[in-house]
């Protein structure tokens, strides 16, 4: 299960990636032009700078120096994480263009059984009611169903729909309580 510190770090990275796209104006199409590891090198630059040790962090920077803007250790690590996400997205788009990848229903079931895809924990917040948390979780499941349906993963989509409704009795391999 993902703990709150891990969840907060993941959310910070996702927020930074979103900021890069929406505020800075970077695009997936632009990221797709970086085929020589530039996004990974930029991430490495921020990671090295975040260590606080003298070294080649700026020397690895693949773009003009004025775009390298280190702030503090946490902020730099979050930026590095978002740049790694951008690189992973770019690689996924490149690979999908070569050979479509479809996650099988069996893989979805196995991942859920092993809690690899278990729902993230929600940080305690007295202002958010249990009902609101349940609705947020259901929205996340609905999104997973949408992703499964658009990727041609019929068995995964079917399992997620059954799981959302709390009826996994037809899935004998599933060994675990439905979390709601």
Classify the helix fraction into a percent range.
55-70%
- SSE succession: HHHHHHHH
Which structural class best describes the helix and strand composition? mainly alpha
The gross shape turns out to be globular
Beta-strand fraction estimate = under 5%
Number of helices: 8
**Domain unit count:** 2
Radius of gyration: 20 Å
Strand segment tally: 0
Q: Which residue ranges are poorly predicted, with pLDDT under 50 across at least 5 consecutive positions? A: 115-120
Q: How is the main sheet built?
A: none
Distance between the termini: 16 Å
Mean pLDDT figure: 75
Topology:
Elements (H helix, E strand, L loop, with lengths): L3 H19 L5 H4 L6 H13 L6 H4 L12 H26 L6 H9 L16 H21 L3 H12 L15
Describe this structure in words.
This protein is mainly alpha-helical and 180 residues long. It folds into 2 domains: 95 residues, no CATH class; 61 residues, no CATH class. It contains 8 helices and no strands. The longest helix is centred in the middle third of the chain and has 26 residues. The two termini are 16 Å apart. About 3% of the residues have low confidence.
């Amino acid at each position: 299960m993902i703990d709150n510190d891990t969840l907060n770090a993941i959310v910070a990275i996702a927020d930074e990636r979103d900021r890069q796209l929406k505020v800075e104006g970077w695009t997936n199409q632009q990221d797709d032009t970086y085929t020589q590891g530039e996004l990974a090198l930029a991430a490495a630059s921020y990671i090295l700078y975040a260590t606080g040790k003298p070294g080649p962090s700026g020397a690895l920077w693949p773009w003009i120096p004025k775009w390298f803007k280190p702030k503090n250790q946490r902020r730099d690590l979050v930026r590095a994480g978002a740049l790694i996400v951008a690189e992973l997205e770019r690689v996924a788009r490149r690979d999908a263009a070569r050979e479509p990848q479809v996650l099988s229903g069996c893989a979805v079931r196995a991942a859920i059984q092993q809690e690899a895809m278990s729902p993230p924990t929600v940080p305690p917040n007295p202002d958010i009611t249990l009902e609101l948390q349940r609705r947020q979780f259901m929205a996340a499941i609905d999104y997973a169903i949408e992703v499964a349906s658009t990727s041609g993963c019929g068995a995964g989509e079917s399992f997620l729909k059954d799981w959302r409704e709390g009826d996994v009795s037809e899935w004998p391999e599933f060994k675990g309580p439905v979390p709601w």
